[in-house]
Each structure stands twice: as C-alpha cells, then as structure tokens.
Amino acid sequence: MFRNTCCRNTASAAVTLHQDQALNTTLFLLKSFGPTGFLLREEGEVRDAKVCLGDPHTCTCPVFTKEQEPCKHICWILLRKFRLPREHEYSFQHGLVERQILEVLRGLHQTKERRTGGDSSAASGAASPPAAAREAGSVCRRVIQAQDVCPICQEGLLEKKLPVSHCRFGCGNNVHVSCMKVWDEHQSRSDGDEAVKCPLCRERFSSRKLLRELVRSAARLSTASEREKPDRHLGVLCHGCRLGPVTGKCFKCTVCRHFYLCEDCSLKGCHPQHPFASRTKRREKWRLVADDLKGATSQSADDSLVPAAADPLPRSVLHGLYTVRVRPGSRLLDVGQQCRLCLLDFVLGQRVRTLPCRHKFHADCVDGILRESNSCPLDGYVIYSPLTCSTSDRKPSSKAAATRPDLNLKDLFVPGVALRGRNPKVTPSRGSLRLEVLPSSPVTSNTSQRRMADRFQGLCFAAEEGTITALNPASSMQRAAGSSHR
After folding, report:
1. What does the DSSP 8-state code read for residue 459?
2. In whole angstroms, what is the distance from residue 346 CA to residue 354 CA?
C-alpha cells in the first residue's frame, strides 16, 4: 500500500505543542461531513475550521496552511473525538491510509475493557428521577456515567461540571447547555424550525424557547468567582501582611493548618520553622517548595504534591454553612436548576448547601468533598480561614451593628450621668438631668459611642426645671473659676 506522506516514529515539537493546545482548548463540533470530515469552532472565536482526515490530513486554519503540520484542530479530532492516546503512532502522523482510518473509526486502538465498559454503560442507562411534569411523548433522561462525554465539545460531563440538558424526544443523552447554544446558533442558519435537533440522534432535542430558558438558568448557576482570574486565590489572606486575596504565587505551611503567605512575605522569611507548599493558580495542586532553591518548587516528582486532605474543612464550619430543604414553590425547582457535581436537578425534600462563593450543591454531594478539602470544588474558593473569620468578628458591618438587639442607649455611658431612653416616657423629677439622643445622630457602633461620650464630657450641663442646657466649654470654665473665687 502506497502512502502519500512519510511515516514517522516520534512526534515533532510542533505536533507536541499542538496536542497540548488541543487538550487545553474548548472546541465545538458543529457538523460532520461523512465519517472523516468535521466542522469545528473554538470557544470565543467566530471563524470555523474544516478538518478532513486522510492521506494527508487537511485543515482550513491559517496555522496548518503555514506549517503543514497537524494543527490543534486535527489533534483535537484524533485525541478528543476518537480518543487516541497522544503517544499512539496514529496521533502524530501527517496522514492515515484507509486501513488506519477504519481502525480509528472502529475504536480498535482502545482496550477491550474500555470498549465493553462503554457499551455496558450505554445499555444500562437508567431513567433519571421522575420529573414533576414532563411533556407528552418525551423520554426519560439517561443517568450520567463516569465515561460519558459531551457530543459537541467531547469533554467529560462529570469532569467539566457544567450544566447539562438531555434529548427529550430522542435518545435521552446529556449535552452541555452552553454547547447546545452554539450548536443551535449554527443550525438555525440553515433551517427555521422552532425545534432544536439532537447532535446524536438527529431527533427533536427540545424547543428553542426551552433552550433559551435553560441558558438563562445555566447563567444563574455560574457565579462571579468562576470568572475571576485564575491567579487570584479567593478567600486567602496573607498571615504576614494581612492583605488578600493573595494574587500570584501563594504559599501554604505544611504543618500549620490554614496558614498562608504571599510571595513577598515568603521571600522575607516569615514563618521559617516549617516547610511550605506553593501554587500559582487556585485550582492547581499544592507542591512542596524545595529547600535548596528559594522560591522554587519541585515540579518533577509526583510525591511533591500535597494532598488536599492536609487542609480539611472543620466540622463546625461545615455544619454552619447555609443549608435549606427544597420545598414547594422554591426557585431551586425551576427549569435548569441542578447540582454542578452530580448534574441532577434539585428535588423536593433534598438538602441544598450554599457555599460562600454562592454555589449550590446537594448536601450529600458536597459534604464528602469538604471533609477532605477546604475549598469549593468548582472555583477553588477557600471557605474557612482563621484570619478571615477573626477579621470579620473584629469589624462587624454597620448594618449588622444597627440590628443587634443588645446595642441600645444603655451602652452609652457618661461617668456620673444616668441615661434614659427617649421611648420610655418617664417624667423626670425636678432638678434631675435628662439626656435625649436626637434621631439624626443614631448610635450604631462602638466608635460612635466613644465620640458621643467625648462630646458629653466636653460640655457642662445645667439642670433647670428638668431640662438640660448645653453651654460653651470655655464659658463654663469661666463660670466655674468665678464661683471658686466667690
């Protein structure tokens, strides 16, 4: 069999780079032209790329036109779509002959256990918990297995943890809501049907009205902390400079729990008695800092990784998180509201925990993770830190201080003067002192109390028929001096 391209035994540097880009980039499979032709679009891009597998492979992107090497789009089809291992000999060739393409299409490169496991999971796909109301003729949703992937972005559903929807009138398979939006935008150009077609079975997926509602619900499930820069370690305050959140490289003591330092304080030698672990992005794993290199981390050995169990969430903090039970009429029962861990809808009677980053999960799903980790499983937000808790205790908000029941006028104390509130209408005796706090100057915190006390101490009061007259401090001092001369 003759080949149009030469066969190589190892991947070139350019192909290795393109493989890394393909595995770290979100691409959408918009259309298939037979078994070997595909139309792709990168997330955030407008221009599409058409890939054709053959001898040689071709792509319409400018990178392939310039380098004539398998670009990230070709690598994505081989690695994501057909699940070729990146070290497989078919994954870095310039092209594949007909026999090799048939092997790739049939999945002969996969192990027998993986293929049988995928077939058994598809055959045993059970129906999801019954919904409160389902359209006539709709099918049940298939249970998401660990190996299930989105047919559009080819990424694992349980690994990506994005909101999903299912084909309601066809196969019942699950698809990312965000991917279905891109798929519908592309399909709506060619047909004006009000129904969205399933990318797998080509049957009716759902109505476009329902899809728009699912997109809005998915936007509500995403919080602002997910959109923060990955080098901002949310919820972490530096124990050296007391600033936060720590940005850039973050250091954590491997002995003292919940002890963090920023890069500047680490270079200053704060807390030198214990070794540290570091990470640059909040979703990365902690790596031990080498003793012989200042500020450098040992990236080579896997034993340098610090397990997440080294920093579990305290039991008291876990039970103190805001938890509700789903009741009739709750917004958690709206269309598209689901747990981002198991990707199942919220059901009546379930307990739902809300983390400080505003993410909502089933209590049964998130409690096991929080017992081993002190951060949100979606955005890496650090939930508990003694430094942040003590800071919040020392500096209560003015709104919270104004609503405290134990903070009243009795707390305002001036030595030698008894205070009476304005609400209890008590008739003062003749010659007694009476203090009135005007509504325009409410007492809402300890600082305002001290200012009020200083103001009262700087004034002299004269009792006349049960009322108080405030005098100028200078004139009151002169009167006091004149009375002493007399």
Report:
1. S
2. 13
State pLDDT tens for residues 341-359.
999 999 999 999 999 999 9
User: Cβ atoms within 10 A of the Cβ of 359, count?
Assistant: 22
Same-domain check for residues 122 and 214: yes
Note the Cα 370 to chain centre separation in Å.
Answer: 14
How many angstroms separate the Cα of 129 from the Cα of each of 32, 126, 132, 133, 446?
33, 9, 10, 12, 54
Cβ-Cβ contacts under 8 Å for 141 (sequence gap 6 or more): 127, 128, 166, 172, 174
Concatenated DSSP letters for 1-15?
Answer: ---SS---SS--HHH
Say how many domains are in the chain: 5
Binning pLDDT at 50, 70 and 90, where does residue 403 land? Answer: very low
Query: And the tokens for 369?
Result: 């993770």
Residues 87 and 148 in one domain: no
| Residue 377, SS3 per DSSP | coil
Q: Please, how many CA atoms are within 13 Å of residue 157, restricted to the half-sphere of its CB?
A: 25
**55 and 21 both lie in a single domain:** yes
- What pTM does this model have? 0.71
Judging by DSSP bridges, how do beta strands 260-262 and 250-253 pair with one another? antiparallel
Q: Which amino acid, one-letter code, is at 306?
A: V
Q: Are residues 201 and 254 in the same domain?
A: no
Contact 288, 274 (CB under 8 A): no
Could you tell me if 122 and 145 lie in one domain? yes
| Three-state DSSP class for residue 95 | coil
In a domain, 296, yes or no: yes
Q: For residue 35, what are the domain limits?
A: 13-110
279-294 confidence digits (pLDDT tens): 999 888 888 887 534 4
232: nearest Cα among 218, 217, 219, 249: 249
Give how far Cα 180 sits from Cα of 168, 185, 218, 330, 431, Å.
13, 8, 12, 27, 81
Task: Name the residue with tokens 């200042």.
Answer: 294
Do 161 and 378 form a contact (C-beta atoms < 8 A)? yes
CATH number of the domain encompassing residue 320: 3.30.40.10
Nearest residue to 345 (alpha-carbon basis) of 134, 82, 163, 204: 163
